[in-house]
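pasting for ref
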Amino acid sequence: MSEPIRTALFGGTFNPLHNGHLTIVKSVLEQGLADEVWILITPCNPWKKDQALLDDRLRYDMVAQAVRDMDGVRASDFEFKLDKPSYTANTLRRISAEYPDREFVITIGADNWVKFHNWKEADFILNNYPIIVYPRQGYPIESLSANVTLLDCPLMDISSTRIRQMVQDGTPINEFVPTSVARTIKEKGLYL
């Protein structure tokens, strides 16, 4: 039997995807922490239930367009068919059952790691799946569990919230997002 494909799941609303996200994805692959990365677009983050999101399919299409030429990276709409909100434990159970040839690893920010103990079924996740934690400004990592790896990745001073605000303010976003994302936001008049 062949070795399972080590697949990092990088979940989020990606409202919109920005270059900081892609830096994390590239770092995971360059450091050999996964064979591939699936950018898992969530229709409803339990921590952001009140956040106004673009249509699920539009966010998926923007991610898919941005990563289409990146080896080992793909957009995934897997959570679109699951119950909402999208709890990571539920996603991991379902995706592991549907893709038994893969070993899934979850990729989360330090902001999520500091509150990980509050996640639904945190112990189940920690005991059954490796976790990659990437640094976030203002969230120092005090300690990591045995199954957790800290990603060596530059701190990016950018967020989707800031991108949306820049669009509303009429500030150019081209240096912060992939070209295809900037083009779609402009052509469709998104976030105004």
